[in-house]
Amino acid sequence: MDYIKISTEELLCWLKENLNEERYEHSLGTADSAKMLAEIYGQDSEKAYVAGLLHDCAKCFSTEKLLEIIEANLDIEEAEKENYKTLHAPVSAFIAQTEFGVEDEEILSAIRWHTLGNTNMTVFEKIIFLADKIEVRTREEWYAAPIRVFLNEENGLTKAILQCYKQTIKSLVDRDLKICPLTIEIYNSLQRELDVT
């Protein structure tokens, strides 16, 4: 099934033109990791690959351009607008839909929530979230390795994502930075998810 209205080659050209070199490599790595995780967890690997390629398509837009697109087209929480590092996620989903003709709601949702995550994520959304954190092309091994170790365990996908949140929360605390209430809510929901399995 085709998930985008252009060829993969055309998409790669667009990404190369609109991302810096490291972000382009990261997008390729995320797509590869998403495809691999999809195969492990019984999801559509082609769909995961496309979502991985597109997840950061707006990452190199200026903060001004991101906010301009959000104000004109998207409805997001004010708290989310306070962190410029996560603005690209809803805009990337918007670009995927409007520029590349993505209609699949799960791809769009996975792109939308790949930075902050969300409560009650689907398996597919978890795959894209996790692929972004553990891809091997640009992610530091010290960060990704403690997350990857959970993938071979029962409920490994959820455990690996929970480890992402543990590392994120610890980093924020260590740097005396605010923790988004949604981050705490997601952390608790993942803990509850593991409690009932």
Write up what this structure looks like.
- With 197 residues, this protein is mainly alpha-helical.
- It has a domain at 8-140: Hypothetical protein af1432 (Orthogonal Bundle).
- It has helices spanning 8-18, 21-40, 45-54, 63-73, 78-81, 88-98, 105-112, 123-134, 141-148, 156-174, 181-195.
- The termini are far apart.
- The mean pLDDT is 94.
Q: How far from one another are the termini?
A: 33 Å
Any idea what the CATH architecture of one domain is?
Orthogonal Bundle
What are the low-pLDDT stretches, counting only 5+ consecutive residues below 50? none
- Helix percentage range: 55-70%
Q: Please, how many helices?
A: 11
> What name does the CATH topology of one domain carry?
Hypothetical protein af1432
Corresponding CATH superfamily of one domain:
Hypothetical protein af1432
Estimate what percentage of residues fall within beta strands: under 5%
Would you count the extended β strands for me? 0
User: SSE string, helix = H, strand = E?
Assistant: HHHHHHHHHHH
Biggest β-sheet description: none
Chain-averaged pLDDT: 94
